[in-house]
Amino acid sequence: APVPAGDWSAVLAALGALEARQAGARAEMGALQRRLEGRADAVAGTRVAHEQEVAGLRAAQAAAAVQFERRGRALVASAAQARRLCSRARGSSLRACAAVGQARTDAEAARARLQAADSALDAKCVGQEKLRRRVLELERQLEVQNLLSRQQSVVLDEAASVLREAFYPRTSAAT
Predict the structure, then answer these.
(1) Are 96 and 160 in contact (CB under 8 A)?
(2) Average of pLDDT values for 36-58?
(3) E strands, 29-129, where?
(4) Is 64 exposed, middle or buried (0-12, 13-18, 19+ CB in 10 A)?
(5) CA 144 from centre of chain
(6) How far apart are CA 33 and CA 59, in angstroms?
(7) In this structure, is the dihedral angle defined by the CA atoms of residues 118, 119, 123 and 124, taken in order, positive or negative?
């Protein structure tokens, strides 16, 4: 059906308005597209920064794990060394205690012999010179035993020091 001439102008006007609206929509779509691309670039930049941060955190965690493992091995070695020192100190202490006990027993025996000799000297005047020599000999033995007792006391003090170091170590700044 043919369109009357007046109607064509209305169709042309409507077509012009439609083309203008379409051009405006294209411009608006282009602006939205540019904004979307800008946001996509920002999101990509943020994603890259986030991935770099995660990589840095993973590297720091790996370094911390290595350091933790190293310190763990050092602590195990230190504990083993402390056990060995403790065992050695315990053995030394037991030997020193036994030696001191023997020295005290010997000293008490020598003291008893010395007192017996002194009493016999007072009771009997016969053989006084012989007894005096015996007393001097016993005194020398007592001095030797006292010297041994002092040396054993020093050994005991050293053993006690080793034990204190093993059970109450001084804190150190090194790790």
Answers:
(1) no
(2) 90
(3) none
(4) exposed
(5) 48
(6) 38
(7) negative
The CA radius of gyration of the chain, in Å to the nearest whole number, is 52
User: Per-residue pLDDT tens for 67-108?
Assistant: 999 999 999 999 889 888 888 888 888 888 888 888 889 888
Record the tokens describing residue 166, joined without a space: 């093993």
Q: What is the DSSP string of 105-156?
A: HHHHHHHHHHHHHHHHHHH--TTHHHHHHHHHHHHHHHHHHHHHHHHHHHHH
Query: 123-156: buried (b, 16+ CB within 10 Å) or exposed (e) per residue?
Result: eeeeeeeebeebbeebeebbeebeebbeebeebb
End-to-end CA distance of the chain: 100
Tokens encoding 70? 């190293």
